[in-house]
Amino acid sequence: MTGDLIMGSSTNSQKNILILYYSYSSQTKNLLQAMINGMDSHPVSVVLQRIEPVVPQHFPFGSIPKTFWKMILTFFRQRVPVKPLPEQCFQHYDLVILAGPTWSYHPSGPVLALFDRDGERLFKDQQVVPLISCRGYWRMHWWGLKALLNKCGATVPNLIVFSHPSKEPWRTVGVFLKLAGKVPERMPWMKKHYRKYGHTRAQLTEARNFGEQLAEVLIKDGDMSSINFKTVPVLYSKS
Ligand SMILES: Cc1cc2nc3c(=O)[nH]c(=O)nc-3n(C[C@H](O)[C@H](O)[C@H](O)COP(=O)(O)O)c2cc1C
Q: How many A from CA of 4 to the centre of ligand 1?
């Protein structure tokens, strides 16, 4: 899933969805792929567009000091300049899904840079459902994102959040080590508590169901706020 993908061809009766996303370590990308699979059997046309930094952001950051420094910069909402989007992103859509990770309690740097440059042109008079992938601390991100979208003139009827299903404090330590380029799943003192970085298969199945529900409601001209996107993170077992 690189650049963009168009699924189905647009006809008058069809609903058009734009999915705009940034993904640093592929977690958002995997969830979206599952969601799109769920939409597959419905008459919706999907434009999938990656938000691409001007300077490629390689995963992982590579060391503990670099990761720590990035956490500080992102806490202060550091922007990561992004490449221009194709013109088709600026059309009107029946639904826009804006997806990406939480970075230090905020939207990621590329998403913030996109808002600065194109926010109003992209989101004015659009119905936007954000999708957040995070280790578990997303509320400030959500409030900030909703405020930004409202300021641009969007309506935000609902929200989808996926958290990493590991227990604390291992989840936070595991994400930090992973971002630093370590392999916490194999560290003797971690592996009992931390099975895997990121989302589970069960969550991908959930994402697929959400994709189906979104498409169903959209084609019936239903209310997006009626969908229950409450996810149930099943924690990894120790075995
Ligand atoms: C710089 C940085 C800061 C992060 N800060 C948070 C945070 O404040 N809260 C949280 O729940 N997750 C945080 N995370 C974890 C990511 O949100 C999480 O790993 C997410 O699933 C990554 O999605 P992606 O692979 O699509 O980028 C942070 C990750 C990075 C790289």
A: 23
Q: Does residue 111 have its Cβ closer than 6 Å to ligand 1?
A: no
What is d(CA 81, CA 111) in angstroms, rounded to the nearest whole number?
9
Q: What is the pLDDT of residues 207-233, one digit of tens each?
A: 999 999 999 999 999 999 999 998 765
In angstroms, rounded to a whole number, what is the distance separating the alpha carbons of residues 176 and 158? 29
Residue 100 has pLDDT above 70, yes or no: yes
Largest CA distance in the chain: 58
Nearest ligand 1 atom, CA 106: 8
SS3 of residue 206 by DSSP? helix
Coil, helix or strand at residue 197: coil
pTM beyond 0.85: the answer is yes
β-pair type (95-103, 128-134): parallel
Average the pLDDT over 167-177 and give the result.
97
For the CA of 61, the nearest atom of ligand 1: 31
- The closest residue, in CA terms, to atom 3 on ligand 1 is 103
Strands 15-21 and 44-50: parallel
Q: What's the residue count for the chain? A: 239
Q: Which atom of ligand 1 is nearest to the CA of 70?
A: 1
Say if residues 233 and 163 touch (Cβ distance below 8 Å): yes
Q: Give CA 166 to chain center in angstroms.
A: 19
